[in-house]
Amino acid sequence: MLTDRAQRTLDTIDGRTLDEMRALRDETERFMQRYKFGMDEVITKLSILREEFSQAHAYNPIEHISSRVKSLDSVIDKMRRKGVEPTFESIRATITDIAGVRVTCSFVSDAYRIADLLTAQEDVRVIRVKDYIAEPKANGYQSLHLIVEVPVFLSTGAHPVAVEVQIRTIAMDFWASLEHKIYYKFDRRVPDELLDQLTDAARTAAELDARMERLHREVHGLPPHARDGARTEV
Predict the structure, then answer these.
(1) Straight-line distance from the first to the last Cα atom of the chain, in angstroms, rounded to the nearest whole number
(2) Which stretches make up the RelA/SpoT domain (predicted)?
(3) Which residues pair with 147 in a beta bridge?
(4) How would you label 95-128 residue by residue, b for 16+ Cβ within 10 Å and e otherwise?
(5) 169 DSSP β-pair partners
């Protein structure tokens, strides 16, 4: 319910202005809805791959799939930080992580494999790739980031929608989750000692990934995996 003050303010607005406000609200909802649909398209593609591997192969590289669409407040905050013009077209062209999908895999080679299979599909267009596995961030963060564009078919026709896809191992995901909680706890002002420990933990996670993949390939009689040559299609 509106407060008395809000109601009095609303009462001073003429009908034409209210109609324009309602129209903007509806257009904003439709704009954000497209990102939800684009996210669903990517999830469907990944879920099909996951089910196919479960039924046709002895090994499934996808452990978990999660997703989110940024809130309108988060989009507005990012617009302000980036100095984006407040138009739908500017947002569409500049902010490419409104819809996000995260894929968790067991091994590093799985991350590249899933990226190759997803981006090989004819209706998926790769906009940008950031390989933080081959080149980790300074704090040790590792993940494979893809910005892909998929068509969303609505009553008004096909609409291309950008979706960010993050693909990482279980160890990487655990580290990233812990880092996020620590940064939230300290309001992003994390003590240097903790930052050093986080970076060291990232190195440990990377070493664990490498050891577990070597063990996995040895058990299954697979040839050694060249990490630098893993990604061939993206």
Answers:
(1) 51
(2) 67-190
(3) 128, 164
(4) bbbbbbbbbbbbbbbbbbbbbebbbeeeebeeee
(5) 105
Nearest of 125, 157, 159 to residue 32 by alpha carbon: 159
Distance of CA 114 to the CA centre of its chain: 14
- Coil/strand/helix, residue 225: coil
Rounded percentage of the chain residues whose pLDDT exceeds 70: 88
**Residues contacting 23, CB < 8 A, separation 6+:** none
Q: Which is higher by pLDDT, 219 or 88? A: 88
Tokens 């209706």 sit at which residue? Answer: 123
- Could you report the per-residue pLDDT of 70-95, keeping only the tens digit for each? 999 999 899 999 898 888 999 999 99
User: What is the value of pTM for the model shown?
Assistant: 0.84
Q: What is the dihedral of CA 216, 219, 222, 227, to 10 degrees?
A: 20
CA–CA gap between residue 34 and residue 79 (Å, rounded)? 18
Residues belonging to the active site: 164
Backbone angles phi, psi at 45, to 5 degrees: -60, -45
Lowest mean pLDDT among 88-92, 102-106, 181-185, 230-234: 230-234
187 or 107, which is more confident? 107
